[in-house]
Structures are given as C-alpha cells and as structure tokens.
Structure prediction request, 552 residues.
Amino acid sequence: MKTRIVLFTIAVFSLLPLSVLALYAVAPGWRFPDVIPAEFDLRAVHYLLSQAGPVSRHMFSSLGYSLLTVALTFIICIAPAHHFARYDFKGKPLLEGLFLAPALVPSMTFSMGIHWLFIKTELVDTFPGVVLVLTIFSYPYMLRALTAGYQAFGKEYELCARNLGATPVQRFLHVELPLLMPSVIAGGSVVFLVAFSEYFLVFLIGGGAVDSFTGYLFPYLVSSDRSTGALMTLVFLTVPILLFIFIEIGISRTYRRRGIY
Amino acid sequence: MSSGNRPSRTFLKLSPLLVPFVALFMGGLFMAVAQSLGFFLPIPYEGGIFDAYRELFRPHILASAGHSLWVAAVSSTLAVSIGSIMAYQIWQLPERSGRMAIIYKIPLTLPHIAVAFIILVFLSQSGVFASIAHQLGLVKTVRDFPPLLHGTGGAGMILAYVFKEVPFVIILALAVLRRMDPRLVETARMLGAKPTAVFLRVVIPHMLPALHTAFIILFLYGFGAFDIPFLLGESSPAMLSIETYNLYFRRDLVNRPTAMAILVCMFLFSAVFIVLYTRIAARISGKDRKL
Prediction:
C-alpha cells in the first residue's frame, strides 16, 4: 500500500506535467475552464513538420556544442583529477575548493566579464566561444566525478601495469580509462545536461549567431500559443532521454557482461 | 611514486585546468570588478571610483536583493526537505518498485526554461489548476483564481525551482542512503523509535553532509540564476539577475558600472556564504560527535 502511494506520488510529479504538455500539443484550442480539451487538432504537429529544417539545425548545433563541452571538460580535468586523487600537496584543499567555484557562484558574475573578454578576442558570437564558456561553467562536475573515480580504485593497478612495462599512454588507455568509465559517464551526463539545457550563457556568448535549441525554444514558450511551445518542449526532451536510455542499456550492459561492474 | 609530489610536477599536471580557470573564470571576475570601478568601459567614465557601489543602496536594488534571497532561501529549503523525505521513501521501496521509481529523474532532464513554461501552464490564472478549481466549483471566472505568478512573493519561481530541484536532492541523498547499513534503521525501530524519530534522528544525520552540499548549490543557484526569473519573474522587485541584465543590455551604457557592481556583490556574497555555511555546518556536526 505504502509502496503504491510513493510510486504514485513520483509518477504524478514526473509524468503528469509531460502528459499535460502532450495534450496541449494536440489541442491548440484548449483553454479555461476545460479540464479535458474540448477538441483536438494537429495544427501544432503540422507546424512542427513544416519546421523540420530549423528544428533539426538548432538541435544539431546544441548537440554539437554540448558534446564538445563534454569532451573538452574531460580533456582539461583528467590530469588534475589524477593528481588530486593520488597526491597530497601544499594548498590542496584550497585549490579543490576554488576549482568548484564556477559551478557554485552565480554564472552571471563571471560570464559578463567573459563576454567583454570574448568581444576583444572576437570569440563572441562563435561556436568555440560558446563551447569555452560552457566548459568553464560545467567542468566542476567532470572534475568531481573523475577525482572520485580515481579514488575508487587504488594506485596498485597503475603500479602493476608500470612494473609490467606499460608506457604511460598504454596505462591510461588500457588500465585507467576502462576503470574510470563509469565516472566518465556520470560526469559526462551531468555536463551534457547542463550544457544542453543552458539558455543564458549560450544566448550571451552565442548572441543568436550560434544556433541553440533553448534559444529556438524560448520565443515559443513565451508566445500565447501554448500548443507549439508544449510540442517543442517534448521534442527537446527526446535528446537527453534517448541519450540516457542508450547509456543505461548499452554501456552499463557491456560492462556487466565483462564482469567489471 | 614520490616524484609525483614535486611542486613543478603538481603545477604541470594541474595546468590544463589552471590555465582556463585563471584566464576565463578569474579573468571574467576581474573584468567585472574593473568595470564596476570605471575601467575598460566602452564610453569615457566620469564618476568617482566607488560611485557604482553607492548606487546599490537605492531602494529598488535593495528590494531586488531581498527578493532574490527570499526566493533562494524558500526554494532551496523546500527542495532539500521534500527531497530528503522522498529519498528515504524510495530507499525503503522493495527492489522491483525501487527500479520503477527511477522516473523521478525526469524533471532533471527538462531545461529551466521548460520548467518555467510548465509552471505557467499549470498555475496561470487560466491554467490547468484554475480549470480544475472551476470544475470543483471553487472559482467562476479566470479572475477568481489567485494570481500566483504575479506579485505574491515569487511563488511561481519558487515552485519552478522546487519541481526541478527535488530530483537533484533525491539523487544526492539516495547515494548516501545506499551506503547506510539498513540494520541501523531496524535497530532503532526494534528499540521502539517511532517512524518520525527514525527519520529525524537516524536517517537525517546520515544524509546531512549531502544535504548541506545540496543546500549550498541550490541556494546559490536560486539566488543568482537567470533563466527561470526571465520567464516567471515580476518586474518589481525584480530578481537581481534580471535587474543586472536590464542595466547591462536594456539601458544606457552609463549604467554598466552599476550592473557590474551588483555582480561583484553577488559574487562576494556567494563566497562568504559558502565559507560561513561550511564552517557553521562543520562546527555543529563536530559538537554532535562529542556527544
């Protein structure tokens, strides 16, 4: 009984809003005081189909800068994460705290200054500029995940591979990376979500010149036609949800089969 | 591997992060401070060096700061409370239903602007809740439904944050609970502790470090974020982020130092908040341990 109540509460809060959006999508004329729409029509769906070009263009652009952000955060965090997990050095707690700051303090406080720096270096309104600003905003999640990942297995693996004569590159690719994969996926998922759903930073640095799905979505969300906004939101959701299903099923199953986790 | 301990090697290994951190994060902050003092502005600056900071004492900016603090404090407190209770409930579920409970993560995948849109759809005066209230005979016209999204202490923004943030708290709290020995809870029960007592005196102390982390993150996010207030915020008092945005983009360039001064103060407040909060939390838990 209690189990049912808990599951029901969770279902109401996570699925009901989406069901309402789905209803709105097929009932543009739904308005007060009807609890169930009086009539259904596919106007919004037809509109979406007619916009297939722009929708996919913005979607691919968002997907592109988000995946690049994941890759870049991984590249800049991997060596520092190893060092934080394996060694003690002077000022380590302070540095660890400082490196978390970009995810904690309001992003506006440093991004407006970055906007000025990027105007001077002509990175504003460019794709690399957007990736850079998203990276500086979201890398702490990757850093935390990788540091925790390194801490989860001892340095014996590295030592053993080293004693067997593996080069640093071999050690990284064949020993550390497979063991780290769950952390890379965990950190990468968060970074991806943060980058993919960010509106303000992309709008500030991309300035409309860099396509983004959040930027494309925004005018629909504030327009009086809720039907299109609802449908576009559902379209938006498909990407992260598909990605997580893919990760959940594909990668974790591979790992389980190999008996690593 | 003692050679890994040399300062030069530390510096080398941290440099992939150190360089972008200094160039972009510190650089960005430095620019905000400089512009707030009147340097590097696109137009010649004529005021005194701290003039922009004097502007901050105007009533509407102080009201904005108060409003931001209020929305941040209420939303993060609610999210952490609800999230910790839900995490405990999910943890107690039998394994199969526990796996079904994973749908709690759905709001996490929604971008903030979409969450704001959902709140609009549900809570506006002609929204879903208003329609339900009409069917129940509670309201007759659109105007009878309370205007939750306008001028009522940021209720819309608070609800949007709570909806989006509860799953985040659940994730953090569940991760800790999964490492907790279930026998602790069983023992407390066998010794006659009531369910609330078990939750408050056994489960909560276990989750506390994770809850502190969640509170700091969510409080500062609510305090300084832009997306949700941009869709749901009122114009006066506006949230600090919106006030800054208006000063920076929508008004004269003369206002830029003031916008930057707000940002500098927001940053200082956040830094002080993190330090004070972690100190106080550490001291309180230190006392607990002595008992």
Remarks:
- Chain A has a mean pLDDT of 90.
- Residues 52-258 of chain A form a domain with the MetI-like fold fold (CATH 1.10.3720.10).
- Chain A is about 80% helix and 0% strand.
- Chain A has two domains: 1-41, 52-258.
